[in-house]
């Protein structure tokens, strides 16, 4: 049986974002990042602060969403961190017509 996990976004001291998944509590994970215990990206960008988290009943769902968020633009990540879902919808809107809906070109 799988256990759940948190998906979380940290804002680093340089203003960048770090996205991760943990099965531990968010307090423990945040302390680990701020202590430099995990190494990697956040180790040289401390202190970090938690700006978003979401619980998933299955860790596989948390990991799937982590991968999606990592591909998002900075503007979309900032909107999610603010809880600004109207801006998030606007930023997610397609700017050009879907290929199947484009007008045929003439030569």
- Total number of β-strand segments? 3
Number of continuous helical runs: 4
Low-confidence stretches: none
- In sequence order, what are the helices and strands, one letter per element? EEHEHHH
Distinctive features:
alpha+beta, 3 strands, 107 residues, GIY-YIG endonuclease, 36% helix, 4 helices
List the helices and strands and how they pair.
Elements: E1 5-11, E2 17-22, H1 26-35, E3 49-56, H2 59-70, H3 74-82, H4 85-92
Antiparallel strand pairs: 1-2, 1-3
Helix pairs in contact: 3-4
Descriptive notes:
Helix 3 (74-82) packs antiparallel against helix 4. The protein is 36% helix and 20% strand. With 107 residues, the chain is of the alpha+beta class. It is elongated, with a radius of gyration of 17 Å. The chain has a single domain (5-90), classed as 3-Layer(aba) Sandwich (GIY-YIG endonuclease). It has a 3-stranded antiparallel beta sheet, with helices on both faces.
Put the structure in a nutshell:
The protein has helices at 26-35, 59-70, 74-82, 85-92; strands at residues 5-11, 17-22, 49-56. The protein is of the alpha+beta class and 107 residues long.
């Amino acid at each position: 049986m799988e256990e759940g996990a948190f998906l979380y976004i940290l804002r680093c001291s340089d203003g960048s974002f770090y996205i991760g998944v943990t099965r531990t509590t968010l307090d423990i994970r945040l302390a680990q990042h701020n202590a430099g215990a995990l190494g990697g990206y956040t180790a040289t960008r401390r202190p970090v602060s938690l700006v978003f988290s979401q619980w998933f009943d299955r860790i596989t769902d948390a990991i799937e969403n982590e991968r999606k968020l990592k591909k998002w633009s900075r503007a979309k990540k900032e909107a999610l961190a603010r809880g600004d879902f109207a801006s998030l919808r606007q930023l997610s809107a397609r700017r050009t017509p879907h290929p199947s809906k484009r007008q045929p070109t003439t030569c």
